[in-house]
């Protein structure tokens, strides 16, 4: 596919209490923009209910430099909702870069993403060669990627996150998706198109603390799992079949023993208690798994919008 000689590239950045990193982010973004005057740059910040000076900073910036725009939510709706809103506000762009505000995704990589897109790819993934997370978070990431890879029909590249460039057609496809529980990397794999990869080293967060808590990460991982796989349900069916089969065999065994007149002492209390607890546990897990799907279905049928916008700065 041929690319326009002077393309419009939009950058979508969700921000939640990012005041400490914004000056540095703006400095580095502007540097990248100035280095590539052949590209028409815009940046759409989506403020996800920040309680610090984030909004004041960006709206003041917008009056000075209209390339920086702001979509301001009425409250905190989450990272995924912010990404969704950002993508809905860049329909005219030829390509859209999505990235985090905390400089873990280096702005200096954007020209490389654009170059790969100009080379013909519709979706360019920024792939981490290294990541800084350690401890529980790190273990969690690795475990999630292993499980996710195995379970779904749309495997995501293990070392990718939200940092990527989406061509106009991929953005169009994204904006048609109406689901509420969103798992961006999975949906990106799902929409398809020609993909390319660009490698980089992921840094520590430049300032502030991670706004995505471990609890939110777990929820995000579950969203990914349940919206891209029916395997948990199927696993229950299999477990049920296996246990029923086992029960049947044990039943036959006892009947045969009785018919053959083999008498045994009445014991087996421990066995009974173990079985009751085991089966009760399996059933509760089953209800929990059903509940995960049911809750998601409920959220989808309510058809609430994924976010509410309070204000826009820099849009006509
Ligand atoms: N973020 C957001 N809403 C939230 C939490 C985070 O918009 O409720 C933004 C945040 O400002 C940052 C990006 O999402 O630009 C990723 O957040 P963070 O760096 O805290 O996550 P992590 O790097 O730990 O995944
Ligand atoms: Mg981060």
Overall pLDDT? 87
What structural category do the secondary elements indicate?
alpha/beta
Number of domains: 2
What is the helical fraction, as a range of percent?
40-55%
Q: How can the largest sheet be summarized?
A: 8 strands, mixed
The portion of residues forming beta strands comes to 15-25%
Provide a count of the helices.
10
Low-confidence parts lasting 5 or more residues at pLDDT below 50?
Answer: none
What is the name of the CATH topology of the largest domain? Spore Coat Polysaccharide Biosynthesis Protein SpsA, Chain A
CATH architecture of the largest domain: Alpha-Beta Complex
Quickly list its features.
binds uridine-5'-diphosphate; 2 domains; alpha/beta; about 50% helix; Spore Coat Polysaccharide Biosynthesis Protein SpsA, Chain A; binds magnesium ion; 8-stranded mixed beta sheet; about 325 residues; 10 helices; elongated
Description:
The protein has 316 residues and is of the alpha/beta class. It folds into two domains: 8-209 and 304-313, Spore Coat Polysaccharide Biosynthesis Protein SpsA, Chain A; 231-302. It is built from ten helices and eight strands. Strands 7-5-6-4-1-2-3-8 form an eight-stranded mixed beta sheet, sandwiched between helices. α2 (54-64) links the parallel β2 and β3 (68-73). α5 (135-151) packs parallel to α8 (214-228) and α9 (231-259) runs antiparallel to α10. The longest helix is centred in the last third of the chain and has 34 residues, at 269-302. The radius of gyration is 25 Å and the shape is elongated. Bound molecules: uridine-5'-diphosphate and magnesium ion. Magnesium ion (MG) binds next to loops.
């Amino acid at each position: 596919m041929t690319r326009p000689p002077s393309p419009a590239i939009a950058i979508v950045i969700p921000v939640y209490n990012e005041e400490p990193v914004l000056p540095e982010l703006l400095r580095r973004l502007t540097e990248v923009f100035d280095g590539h005057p052949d590209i028409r740059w815009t940046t759409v910040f989506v403020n996800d209910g920040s309680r610090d000076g984030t909004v004041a900073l960006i709206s003041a910036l917008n009056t000075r430099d209209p390339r920086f725009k702001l979509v301001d939510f009425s409250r905190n709706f989450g990272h995924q909702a912010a990404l969704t809103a950002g993508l809905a506000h860049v329909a005219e762009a030829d390509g859209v870069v999505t990235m985090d505000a905390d400089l873990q995704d280096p702005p200096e990589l954007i020209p490389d993403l654009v170059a790969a897109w100009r080379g013909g790819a519709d979706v360019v993934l920024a792939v981490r060669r290294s990541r800084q997370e350690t401890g529980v978070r790190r273990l969690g990431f690795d475990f999630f990627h292993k499980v996710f890879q195995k379970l779904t029909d749309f495997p995501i590249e293990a070392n990718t996150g939200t940092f990527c460039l989406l061509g106009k057609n991929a953005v169009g496809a994204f904006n048609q998706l109406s689901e509420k529980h969103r798992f961006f990397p999975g949906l990106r794999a799902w929409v398809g198109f020609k993909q390319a990869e660009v490698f980089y080293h992921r840094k520590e967060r430049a300032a502030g603390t991670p706004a995505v808590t471990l609890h939110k990460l777990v929820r995000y991982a579950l969203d990914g799992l349940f919206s891209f796989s029916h395997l948990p349900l199927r696993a229950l069916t299999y477990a049920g079949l296996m246990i029923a089969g086992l029960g049947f065999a044990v039943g036959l065994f006892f009947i045969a023993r009785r018919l053959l007149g083999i008498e045994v002492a009445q014991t087996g209390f421990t066995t009974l208690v173990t079985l009751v607890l085991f089966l009760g546990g399996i059933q509760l897990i089953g209800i929990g798994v059903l509940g995960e799907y049911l809750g998601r279905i409920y959220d989808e049928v309510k058809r609430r919008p994924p976010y509410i916008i309070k204000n826009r700065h820099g849009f006509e």
